[in-house]
Fold this sequence. Notes:
Elements: H1 2-10, H2 15-23, H3 42-55, H4 57-60, H5 62-93
Amino acid sequence: MTHVIADDAERILPRAELDELSASGLLGITVPRSHGGAEVSARTLGEVVRLRSAADAGIGQIPQHHFFFVMRVFERFRKRRAIDLMRVATAVCS
């Protein structure tokens, strides 16, 4: 744990560990199935983050931001798609 605090203070990024995490495919677990992801539940995501953080706290926190960002992107995508579909439906019905 001491190395995590020191690395954080020095702003040292664990690049090799992040590359490994990325290569594992784990970062895609919140992507909707319709887009090739696993679309796991919040409970499963929480457990994955908990386990990852227990193994290495320095790495465990970083994916939380990634998962939140992915969630927001797909929320915006869904809202945008709904607005576009409403416009098409309105144009067809006019």
